[in-house]
Amino acid sequence: MSKWIPTWSYVPIDYGLDVAVFEDISQRVLIRNNLRGEAIRLRFQNDGGETPLHIEHASVVLVNRVTGRCSQRHDVTIDGETRIVLPPESRPWSDPVALPLTEEDDLLVWLYFKEKAQARSVCVTFTGKGWQSTQHKGNFHETEALGYTFKSELAPLLAADPNPNQYAVGLFAVSVLAGDVTKLIGLFGDSITQMSFFHDELLERLYRAYPGRCALINGGICGNRIQKPFPVLPDFPGGGKQFGPAGRERFLRDLFDSAAPDAVFILEGVNDCTHSIVFTEPEIPTADDIFGALCDVIRQAQERGTRVYVGTIPPLGGFGEAWRDAAETLRVQYNERIRESGLPDAVVDLDAKMRDPHDPHRLRADLHLGDGVHPNWRGGACMAEAVMERCFPD
Questions:
Q1: What is the pLDDT of residues 213-256, one digit of tens each?
Q2: What does the DSSP assignment read for 48-82?
């Protein structure tokens, strides 16, 4: 018996302002696939939009990673129409596209935005193993001689990020009609999850170990907190809205909306320990407050038959920040509750795995991007190895 399984899914980040503006732009998204199936569906989005988003044409091509061969181009429609109109706040699925594929076939999705398109939400990755995107001047459906574009012109806010990133407008998930032996695994968290250094390293290991048998989806939002919604920050673009609603409120929408995962790995709490202090909010949470929100999320998953794995929070900061001591106290107390609760199916002690052996309150210097918080490729590999050993030992 077959069922629809997301082979790729990211959370559309709503910035609360026009984060990308397209006109006569073709967007190319190459998506890593590990599923065998007989058809695919694309899921579109216009989260936070104030005007309809018009996609003049959409298509998909299979690209075999082993042979390099590409399939013919297949049109993507909604209700039989090749021109796709996305009303504000809509998240429609495309019609099924009959497209037999194997775990060697990646998906190349083309979208052409002819009319001026103002997007307030986009999917973002800081890596390139799980998916890649580019934007080009011109219509892919008419010519291969597409023009070069600058991110600073199309999405200046994203171009200003000190960490290089890639983004996708209008698209946030692809599902495959796959066999029922396929397992779906979800990651849930904040920037450590969304930036994808960890996600992509885990993806490589899972897909190598279980070809054709599992898919990994990403439920991370940079700056997200599990207990509270985003802090109101008047000096931030969009007032801080890009940090998203509280994790406990968005969990089911961002991981269970397309299909219920068989297992989820949760790593969230860094921003709960820091933001209220850094941004001088009137109420600073206790470790019990943060852990209570984590328990809510765990129960939501377990009530739906999903196995839950939780990571302890690795060290953060460590460069003399004024907020450091108070945040570190919260982090240590929160981790103690995670280790002692017995509520998850398993705990992955990333704190013990990644801390500096000479200073347990800092990350190992070779595991982060230079900020003491976010893992680099080596840090992502360290996390992925720990998750594989603890959660998928077979």
A1: 999 999 999 999 999 999 999 988 899 999 999 999 999 999 99
A2: T-SS-EEESEEEEEEEETTT--BPPPEE--BTTBS
* Nearest residue to 65 via CA among 40, 111, 102: 102
Say what the pTM is: 0.97
Round to whole Å and give the CA distance between 4 and 31.
Answer: 17
**Secondary-structure breakdown of the chain: helix, strand, coil percentages, each rounded to the nearest 5:** 25, 35, 40
> What is the crossing angle of helices 287-302 and 324-341, to 10°?
40
What the block records as the tokens of 170 is: 């209008």
Q: How far apart are CA 268 and CA 197, in angstroms?
A: 16
Does residue 318 have a pLDDT over 80?
Answer: no
Tokens of 195: 């930036």
Question: Tell me: the pLDDT tens digits for 276-317?
Answer: 999 999 999 999 999 999 999 999 999 999 999 999 999 987
